[in-house]
Amino acid sequence: MIDLRSDTVTKPTEGMLQAMFSAPVGDDVFGEDPTINQLEQMVADMFGMEAGIFCPSGTMTNQIAIKLHTQPGDEVICEQFSHIYQYEGGGIAYNSGCSVRLLIGDRGRLTADQVEEAINPDDVHKPHTSLVSLENTCNRGGGSCYDWKEMEAIKEICLRHGLSYHIDGARLFNAIVAKQENPLKYGAMFDTISICLSKGLGTPVGSVLIGSKAHIKKARRIRKVFGGGMRQAGYLAAAGIYALEHNVERLNEDHTHAQILAAALAEKDFVSEVLPVETNIIIAQINGRYTASELVKKMKEEGVMVMHISTNQIRLVLHLGISIESVNNIIKVISDL
Known about the structure:
Elements: E1 2-3, H1 14-21, H2 34-46, E2 51-55, H3 58-69, E3 74-79, H4 83-86, H5 91-96, E4 99-103, H6 112-118, E5 128-135, H7 148-161, E6 164-169, H8 172-179, H9 183-189, E7 192-196, E8 207-211, H10 213-225, H11 234-246, H12 251-266, E9 271-274, E10 281-286, H13 292-301, E11 304-305, E12 307-310, E13 313-317, H14 324-336
Parallel strand pairs: 1-11, 3-4, 3-5, 5-6, 6-7
Antiparallel strand pairs: 2-8, 7-8, 9-10, 10-13, 12-13
């Protein structure tokens, strides 16, 4: 089977496994796992931030960030397709007691004007707006990337209104590579950044939340309450260090493969639209002799696994487990449909 359902399905490479097997470990809750400490500081330094905290998942790093930036009864501004709203189990309400102001963006991306208009006035009838959260790249936007100037404009609004600014960077390195950006500029812009290691970077598990020392100190308490304190998890952190040293620039391969497959899909009569492909995600609109679920079933019968994300949309995600030979095989399957 060729699995394009997500970039979370990757397996550790031989080099990554060797790094994991040889990692020195300790008790992370005591702050004594040297490999975790190394990873946390490594990610923080890459973005020019003070500190980091290693967590089991990107959902946890996002939820910790939301809780540390808000008080119960506050409101979070985000786009309607944001992972923090769509795929984190209602955690904004459950964990932080906050409401959400959902905005309709362009393929998951907000504008500064939208954000400013959504900020509540100082009125006892309304929740206090305290946090703006972006997602870059946006999963449901087809791996879309934010324009840098738009993020800067949103930052200015946050500063003017005293709002915290968080970015869900589950696939942030995809955006950085695709747009040839500098991670240090992200660290200077956002209060907290969530970096997922288990997607395009190919580790088995784990995400890192980075920010100021004060934010990360508070995050450690929240992580403990969430049940996220880990012990000898340096074996997992070692995979993250290896990924950051070896798997960042290779994301360009995934982006190239996505362009090739998107072109093949666009030629089919049952595909009415393919969203612009900027990184490693393809979203195709199905309209014709297949429904999205029927097409998923048909492709699986031919040895290719994809995902339907609505009644008329399928998603394909490229990752390090997909070689150019795999891409050619997928094209043959698509051509024969």
